[in-house]
Amino acid sequence: MTATSNFGVHSEVGRLRRVLVCEPRLAHRRLTPSNCDELLFDDVMWVENGQRDHRAFTADLRERGVEVLELHDLLGQTMRIPDARGWLLDRKVVADDVGLGLVEGTRAYLESLDEDRLAEFLVGGLSTTDLPEDYRTDYVSLARESAGVNEYLMPPLPNTLYTRDTTCWIYGGVTLNPLYWPARHDETLLMKAIYRFHPDFVDAPVWWGDPERGWVGRRSRAAT
């Protein structure tokens, strides 16, 4: 399937041609015994073993002619597009999540990153200790004192491993699924950015969901 092909899944038993996966990376290194329950993981992960198994699995897929798309790579490619970067950071770096006094510095730091490093933080999370001194304010100290040294300005998203949850291709369109648990909400936001702006998917028909009203519409781009 090329970038100009029609997308879709029309069979449960047909040949798999293209698949989206997410390799264990920074988000999974962030898992600790004290935060794994909140992040919906039963335990911490041995990341190196997870990466080894993941790469063996994707190598097997490629040997069988399947095109493997990696989420971090797609997100990085999307973040090369200025409108995409602005759209996503407008929704990720907000006062209710980051803290009113930390929005400006956090946004400036993320804007300064290249697209691959930005994608790594968008999935892997940004802690107060990741923010360089030039972008810090006194509010960083307050955040660390109130919630401990591992306070996250953007929490890690380790459940991005489960790419089948956030989006589903059904016949000729794709759903963007509103996940129930707060720890997973931003996963769908990342996928919205990819389907809205990435040149391979920008024309894909998208259904989006409302947590209270269910599926509410269809557009050629992800809903704002």
TrEMBL record:
- The domain of life for this entry's organism is Bacteria
**Cell location:** Cytoplasm
Is the keyword Cytoplasm assigned to this protein?
Answer: yes
Q: Which Gene3D superfamilies match?
A: Arginine deiminase, L-arginine/glycine Amidinotransferase, Chain A
Record keyword Cytoplasm present: yes
Q: Pathway, per Swiss-Prot/TrEMBL?
A: Amino-acid degradation; L-arginine degradation via ADI pathway; carbamoyl phosphate from L-arginine: step 1/2
State the UniProt keywords alphabetically. Arginine metabolism, Cytoplasm, Hydrolase
Supply one GO BP term.
L-arginine deiminase pathway
Q: Which GO terms describe its cellular component?
A: cytoplasm
What Pfam families is this protein classified in? Answer: ADI
SUPFAM superfamilies per record: Pentein
- EC number(s) per entry: 3.5.3.6
InterPro entries noted in UniProt: Arg_deiminase
Q: In the record, what terms sit under GO molecular function?
A: arginine deiminase activity
Name the predominant localization: cytoplasm
Record field: catalytic activity: L-arginine + H2O = L-citrulline + NH4(+)
User: Which class of enzymes does this protein belong to?
Assistant: hydrolase
**Which family is this sequence assigned to?**
Belongs to the arginine deiminase family.
Q: What is this protein called?
A: arginine deiminase
Give the originating organism: Gordonia humi
